[in-house]
Structures are given as C-alpha cells and as structure tokens.
Amino acid sequence: MSYTTVISPPRQQSSALKLKGFKVYAVEQPCTTKPHFGRRDYFKVILMTTKARLHYGHQSWDLDGTYLLFFNPHIPYSMEMLADFRHGYISLFTEEFIAPLDRSESLHQSPLFKIGSTPLVRLQEGQAAFMTGIFQKMLAEQEADYPFKAELIRTYLQLAIHEALHLQPTEAFFQHKNASSRLASQFLELLEQQFPVESPQQTLPLKTAQDFADRLAVHINHLNKAVKEVTGKPTSVHITNRITDEAKALLQHTTWSVAEIAYSLGFAYATYFNNFFKKQTGHTPLACRKAAASISWS
C-alpha cells in the first residue's frame, strides 16, 4: 500500500509556532494522502518510525525503521508513506529560536541542514530510546509553566542535533574524490543558492546551463559531463526540475499572480511560463494553485 504525504502541522500549531518560534507534537496516526511538496518558514527535526520513501531536493532514500530527519525550509521535500501508520515526534522551530544572538554561522550551513547534505540518521534501539526521551522532555516543557522553558527546550533541541552529528556516518562529511564530483557539487549549490525566491521583483540570475558554466568559469561541455557523471542527470534537467519545484511552491504558498511568478523565475512572458509548467507537470499554473487551495490540512 502506498501513500504520499507531507509532514505538516495543524493550522493552530503553525500559528503557535510563529508566536513562540518553536513547536513540538507527537504523531500517532494513519498516513494521509497529500501529494505535493511541502515548504514552510521553519526548520524541522523529526523522530519517526516509519516505512517510506523520502524525496528531499533532488535526492531520495528508502526508509524502514527509526530515523532522525532534518528539514531545511528552503529545500522542498515529500514522503511517500509505504505503511498504514507512523509514529514519533515532530519539532518545528525558527533559526532565531535555536541560534544564539551572537552566532555567526547560519543554521543553513550545518552539516545536517545545508544544501546537499544527508538529512537523516538511522537509529538503533538504544539510540532511539534516548532520542525519544529528549522529545518527550521538550513536549513536557512546552506545556509547563517554567519561566525559562524556552531556554531549556533550546538546550534539548541542541542536544538532539549534536547527538545526530555524533552518530552521523563519515560520508556525511564527504570530501570530493575528484574534479567532477567537486564541480557537480559547486553547480548544485549554486543552483540552490538562488532559492527561495523572496519577492516578485526578484528574478533568477542563472537560468541556463551556459549561465552556470560562465559563473563557474568552465566550458559548458565540461560542466554537463561532470554533472551527468556524478548525478546521472543532465545539467538542464536539474535546472528545469528546480524551477518547477519553486513554481509549485510559489503557486501554493504565495498570492503572487502567475505573471509575477513567471517574471521571478526568469520567463519574459506569462505564456512562456504557462507552457513550461504544463509541459513539466501536465497542469496549468492556475490548476495547480486551485488544487493546492482545495487541500484541507488536518
């Protein structure tokens, strides 16, 4: 049995998050069908026992067991649930909540959250029990009257992150083995740096494989060969897929007009964008927005 879902908080929990910068809740429910990528304005650390297929940016993993999952709000993701039930805990937080005021390094650069990272850690039984205890403490403190509970919860959350870094396999701190791997990584990071699009007045500076080759100071054939060798996909496919993902997110999570979205994604005319989007998804932009609006979050 296969389901597709996006792990998202109920509406009232999302509102509470924006007020406090943090929310944690337990999950013990049947899987639901929500077939689109999710993107919100917060980071997520999830402790989940599940059988699923995770799609995160342009990477995919098959999950079967207990995992810690780390989601960056700038990277779209989805999970195809392959079992009838899932259980665990979900914590959501802003970077302002987790980071001290004097911290110079962004959470986006953390080995667990940065672009191109492996956003999951498989847990053994003892490790899962320890992490469960941390999430249960956060859940209890969330409901407590302790005046410094935000600081205490932040400590628990940082402990979970550091424990994950301690458990993470050495390939998470992978050093590129050759020039092709290094160049492909530079391309993918440069591609992701353009997103998310924050304003209708903003437009993508790099839209074609030639644009990326020029920025990286390499011949386009060299770039295409390296990216295809390392990822199995041509440079143009990565660009097309990423623009399509961003288009879906903007249609679902903003009130911008189709013309504004088209401009921000580098299309000179809305008709060009309409044709591109329909070719990639099989639907018009307005149909995609209408379908997203009809989904009831539960």
UniProtKB/TrEMBL annotation:
Keywords carried by this UniProt record: DNA-binding, Transcription, Transcription regulation
GO MF assignments: DNA-binding transcription factor activity; sequence-specific DNA binding
Highest taxon of the lineage: Bacteria
SMART domains, alphabetized: HTH_ARAC
Domain HTH araC/xylS-type: start-end pairs: 185-291
Pfam families documented for this protein: HTH_18 (PF12833)
SUPFAM superfamilies with a match to the protein in the record: Homeodomain-like
InterPro entries per record: Homeodomain-like_sf (IPR009057), HTH_AraC (IPR018060)
Protein name: Helix-turn-helix domain-containing protein
